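re: ur question from yesterday

yeah so i grabbed the chain u mentioned. its 939 aa long if i counted rite. heres the sequnce exactly as i have it in my notes:
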Amino acid sequence: MAALALVAPLASAALTSPSDPAPAPTDRVTDTSQLPSGWQKSGDRIVTYDGDATGLHVLVADAADAYRWHTAATLSEPGVDTDQWIGQTCVTGSGDRAVVVYAPRQAVNDQQGFQQGAFAAVVDLADGRVTKLPELVSLAYFNPGCGDGEQAVLTRPQGDDTELLTVDTARAKLVRQQTVAGQLTSAVPFGNEIAAARGDAVVSVDAKGGTSTLAKTGGTPFRLVPDAHQGLAYQVPDGKQVQVRRVTSAGSDRLLGAGALGSLAVHGSGGRVFVTGRDAEDAVEHSALPKSWRTLDVPASAEVSTTGSLALTSVGNGTEAAGGRKSAADVAPPVGIDAVLPGSDSSVGFKVVPKAAAQGAEQSPALSDGVHTDSVDPESADTDPATSTTDPDRACAVTRNDPKLQSLQPSTAQAEWATDLAVQGKLDVRRRSGWNGSELPSYTPQGLFPSTPLKGGGRVPAQIMLGVLSQESNLLQASSRAAAGESSNFIQGGYYGNAGSVHTVNWAAADCGYGISQVTSGMAKADTTYTAEQQQALTVDYAANIAAGLQILQDKWNQLHDRGLLVNGGDPKHLENWWLALWAYNSGLNLPSSTDASAPWGLGWFNNPANGLYPADRKMFLSSGYDDARTPNLWTYPERVLGWAAYSQQKTDPATGATVRAFTVGEWPSGAPAAEPAHDTFCKPTANDCDITKPRKVAGSSQPEGPCQRDDFKCWWHQPVSWTDCTATCGTEVLKYAAGDPEPKVAAPHPAACTSTLPANALIVDDVPNTVKFRVGSANPCAGKRNWTSRGTLTFTFGSAQQNGATVYPSKIDFHQLGAGFGGHFWLTHTRVPSYTDSVVTGTWTPDRKVIGSAEVMVHLPDHEANTPSATYRIDLGDGTVVEKTISQDTGGKNAWVSLGSYAFTGTPSVSLSSATADGTGDASIAWDALAFVPVRGK
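ran it thru and got these structure tokens back, copy pasting raw so excuse formatting
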């Protein structure tokens, strides 16, 4: 095997190798001699953030406390199934509050989710009070924008306009909502108005939405920062250079310095402006700097504290690029932070364990009004969605919560194995009938989804497909609740069309993306592209899903090849030559008009690197370290895929505990960044009406200013392109697995409890019928161990709501299954207060016979995903008499039978458990596994 070509720097102190001799990082500066004199009375504060599957953590440290870190808030939305929360923050002038924009990672893969799918909140940094705001906003890198006071601005495209939302953070309230014609970016409060970038100008927006020009620039301005003297710092690209400029409210504009693009940046809060960059001292004219400006000799990308006394050079927990699988108890992984003290040679490392905050988990009011819903005819008149765990009224092909259609979670090794064999056309492993407990007949993945020959010859490089899988799903086939080797529902982003709300089902807006490749085409219920067998196979089997995703990517290549859209000559062995095919894989190809030869066609504007949605000075994704994975919204889809191909995701080596690559990366002659296209590569006046020398703001448009010269933003790319000699610079594939290599094995960390330890006369009622077969792939972990039979049923009732004239069941959004616990299956959701009637799930165990006499009721609790302290079981003694028993479901990480007490039964009993609890906040999980009635002798 060829040596791995690239080594990206580790993200943070949290990822330091165990063999590193440096002192172990703590949550504060332990050697306070490193701090500047007077630090005990300093008002300096640093605020940063990091996201994982539990939420986006807002982290704060004060100089007066030796920069001891604490969690101000953890922001998430109940019922959103994501492996990582992402976002941005800004700090108000007082340093007392932060405005936060946050969203599930998957939002960056969808244009609407990117532009209008992020949540916003104000966080009080002193007491952690969270006020979520009632509007959804953009995920663009410049959102939110804070001024030198207590106001902030949020932006959101709205049709052909831009909405500017002004927030009074002191009251945690939206105080103004303006619609401004055209596409504005980098909006910040500026005096009594708002400053923003529009086209080739910095403009101000008054209270009535009127605009006036503050400065005309030679490019598109970005990173606007107000200073304390009625001035505004901003940057503007100038070819391969970037200028740092200052404009005043009176319109006086001045150049203060310049450097290579990416070498300088402006930051600030509270009227202070910091110019960062290793060359900032030499690049900026110091005599011209206002008193509130400083240069800092730190990396341009560093995050700077409120007074500039501390700069963070790296922040990360190691899971941002590691698949984000949820821990059993939804515990946040520790965050490593590397920092420097500007003006000294001192550096410090921190390790912070984020704490969850209940307020940050409450549903955003941006979702409270609901979304219109359209009902789909149920698949069977005998299936009642009010009681079925499945969704007979769904819009997508394969239902959630069918015990016979669980997805097996692959290890990263299995994902790479399937990818390597698939690109070679050799993914012919035989899946036996009933694979993973399904009812599928025997098949092979590429028998169901044959590899499509590429036009012009060659094949898809493995690292391109691995990059797609990384970006689409973080290499997950099943829900992030499932560990490798465990089964659960398929990973999905928009199955309920609920835009993040646990109270809304909108089948009309469903996004039927399935599994590790997020296969969407052919997966709507009404779509006949795939057979039912194919649809089910790509749902339960990661290998079949990868084969289907590969087919789609191959089709995109061929579609572009037929129209002459080739990159660097079109040799598919070079990774960069897949740029256009990746563009099409994510956002499609707008086909030529059959009636108007002059009509625009090609690849859409959203993923064009010249689009103003993305910072002009960004470097290659992940080339500066895994911190980039915190903010994937700063790069286009092809950029992200090539970054994953060059640097890989990360995983923890179980043998050493070290952080290592999750899969093999490609090989580049001179490093991957050398082969990246310039941001203006797909911007040519004669090709797609795009001109970087003429930044433009379209009146009446919601798009940011940028080089697209069309009012409708159809600056669609449809020409062949060449930007490098691929033989000298481009990446090529490195295979780890050869055709015929066996499928890697994985041991599930939560093995099922196969054998009953109860007395032989126990009347056991399992959570699924006896016809459900527990399998892990082709294996039967309970073979020869099962000494019991279920004697009864577990039935459910699901909370409903009336939406747009239809009855829907929002309670199913946060309802899940896992292939573990007793017999290899259990159900779970999260507790909510009883007033959330549309979110409540109630399960009732009923044996198939009477119980006469005394019996002890035993409930089986799984070793994970069950931790509510308030599980109240209602026990019907068979004659209508009901007694209640409340227990904690937390067993300390083991499968266990727990007694609910002994009772005198006089008929057919039943036991019910509801997810409604007085302390329910949507955080604690509650599970339904097996239940048993054990006769008590002599009673």
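noticed a couple things. The mean pLDDT is 91. also The longest helix spans residues 542-562.
anyway ttyl
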